[in-house]
Design goal:
Elements (H helix, E strand, L loop, with lengths): L11 E7 L2 H13 L5 E3 L17 E6 L3 H17 L2 E4 L5 E3 L19
Antiparallel strand pairs: 1-3, 2-3, 4-5
Length: about 120
């Protein structure tokens, strides 16, 4: 893995559009754990929902072009894991959450262990 300093990056490439800022933070952490530089854009556009097209409201993750292929592999693994991990508990707000989530991704309430399936 090529270690880069932000000052050495000449070209950034859009890697992924997260559904919300929570997912963006999760994916950003996965990438940073592998020494990949990440820039976020659009994290403050949620307030404009309804005024902007839905494709413009999500948080975009950008990586240096030199690290794009490595970052793409990490995103592929992340998406594959999401497809195979069944929802295991339902929050009191009604949202289904993956078993590995300790808090609801939608309302941030703690998982009620007594209601886990």
């Amino acid at each position: 893995m090529e270690l880069l300093h932000p000052a050495d990056v000449t070209s950034w490439q859009r890697l992924y559009q997260a559904e919300n800022s929570f997912e963006a933070g999760l994916v950003q952490g996965l990438l940073q754990r592998s020494a990949i530089l990440v820039q976020l854009s659009g994290q403050y556009l949620a307030g404009a929902a309804g005024e902007l097209p839905l494709t413009d409201v999500g948080v975009q993750l950008w990586v240096p072009q030199q690290q794009y292929l490595a970052a793409q592999r990490i995103i592929s693994q992340y998406l594959q894991q999401l497809q195979h991990e069944p929802a295991q508990w339902q929050c009191s707000c009604g949202e289904l959450n993956y078993q590995s989530f300790d808090i609801c991704w939608s309302c941030l309430q703690d998982k009620d262990e007594s209601k886990s399936q």
